[in-house]
Amino acid sequence: MTNDRVPPGSVAEKPERPDRVRRSMFVIGCIGIGAATAGFLAATVRFLVPNVLYEPSRRFGIGPPTVFPPGAVTFLPDRRLYVFNGADGFYSISSVCTHLGCNVKRGGPGFECPCHGSQFDENGQVVQGPATKALAWYALSLSPHAQLVVDLDQPVNPEFRLRA
Amino acid sequence: MSQTLWNRTLTWSGAVRRSVSRVGWPATDKDRAAAMISSLFLHIHPARVSRHVLKPAYTCALGLIAGVLFVVLSVTGLALMLYYVPYPPEAYRSMKDLQFVVTFGIVLRNMHRWSAHAMVMVVFLHMCRVFWTGSYKPPREFNWVVGVLLLLLTLGLSFTGYLLPWDQLAFWAITVGTNIAAYAPVVGDQVKFLLLGGHVIGPMTLLRFYVLHCVMLPLAMLLLISLHVWRVRKDGLSGAEVHAPAAEEVAGVFPPSTKTYGLMALSKRPRTSVEARDPNDDVFAWPQLLYRELLVALAVSVALHVVSLVFMAPLEEMADPTRTPNPAKAPWYFLGLQELVHYSALVGGVIVPTLLVLALLVVPYFDRGKAGAGQWFAPERRVANAVFTTLAVIFAGLTIIGTLFRGPNWAWVWPWK
Fold first, then answer.
1. Which of B193, B321, B324 sits opposite A114 (nearest CB)?
2. Fewest beta carbons within 10 Å, which of A125, B79, B148, B372?
């Protein structure tokens, strides 16, 4: 309680200017603590990003071309993918609605989303909103074992066809 | 000899009791006031409260009910954790166990589910009450901000809890919800990736939502509730100032007081002076406030039990990422958002909610006039109340449309057909 009492005699003394060395050390210390805090926060955010994903592979085989009848559409539910065997080759369109991620279903000439009512044509282009982006097309390739392989990390244009 | 032993035993047991509670069961107003101040659990109340703010028609007890629901949710939630396994597909099986195998498991789950729904509703109504009575006016601006954060936490807790049953309802509601987050500009996709712990909803997502739901968000909530209640305690309930009669009215009956409190010099908060308060205006918090609180808690508890015994919490078939139910709906309190999202995901899912929350956060710093604070629908606050009510009605309307009037492919349906 007596700390704030000024001792007699010291009233008249002028306060000394702060020591420049001590002041600069204080600033350096503050910068150091700030940097350490920023680093700690960055490390925490990085910690939250998983390095290994225990998810299905983004590149996978879906069987030999012969299992897809010509002129027909095959839906692979666990891959969320439509595979077409058209007159000019194979192509695949994602069933993940670009609006909010529901599975689109075959309806009318193209696709319909059950969640928010988006409609797409047979090439996955938007016919009616709320979706604004077309359905994703993914690259198909033929593996050495004559398997069709889809690569979800390789989106392609709607002109894509695989001759097999 | 035996008499002495008996007396010694009495003295000893009395000493034990006093070591626990320093005052006995209080018999007088003074003792009860002392108990309110000295007990950790009671001291969130003042010793005396204005009898005007005790009227049920003023607060509708909504804040208290929200607090009671939080306690019920914590207790039932902790009990459910003893049987719940946060890993698919065991998560879904443990829900089935709670329903069909665990004794009273279904009642606990029902109670947790309905309390969560009730809490969202009650917190929203509490916000409406505080707005309509102008209770966010100075000095209570910041407590309104804390309240808005508590509303967001309530929604966050409901949303993270929604995934845990791992049924179709849960899976697709969270699919829609996290895809809305992905529409946020710049960081949207990263936020979604962090939230899901991957590209798709899977075991990692369930674990993250579980930890958020059971530990992180409840702790944050507890902290903010403490702050919220502490500030109510410090500022007093709103409305007491309005009803405090002017000094001269009182002066004729009571001599002008010269009383001061030692700590008043330290206390910076605005206060009505001791002289201006009519002593007859205040009543002792014990029993007037305390018994009302116990009564409300009892009523809430009874209502929850009845509802939980009659109505079953929904549990659909196990989550199936390959099959979207039609229509796929978010939890009901997000259906207003989903209805907006149906028109545009960016506007409805990101821009409108962000603007709404920002508007709620800053409203006490723009609407600063003190007129009309502390009474329902004060005429001075006609404009503010009209704007707020319009927004609240629009939002409630959208929620009702999304809940009842939307069918397969989100097409319009009439609920009675």
1. B324
2. A125
Distance in angstroms (rounded) separating the CA atoms of residues A142 and A97: 27
ipTM above 0.85, yes or no: no
Return the CATH number at A112: 2.102.10.10
Which residues span the domain enclosing A27?
15-48
B204 with A54: Cβ contact below 8 A: yes
Q: In A, what residues contact B, Cβ < 8 A?
A: 48-50, 53-55, 58, 77-78, 80, 99-103, 105, 112-117, 129-132
Kindly state whether residues A137 and A89 are assigned to the same domain: yes
Kindly state the percentage of chain B with pLDDT values over 70: 90
pTM of the entire predicted model: 0.83
Residues A21 and A69 in one domain: no
Could you read off the pLDDT of B15-70 as tens digits, one per residue?
898 888 777 788 888 888 888 888 888 888 888 888 877 888 888 999 999 999 99
Q: Which residue did the predictor score with more confidence, A55 or B308?
A: B308
- Chosen domain end from A29, A48, A67: A48
Verify that A37 and A98 share a domain, yes or no: no
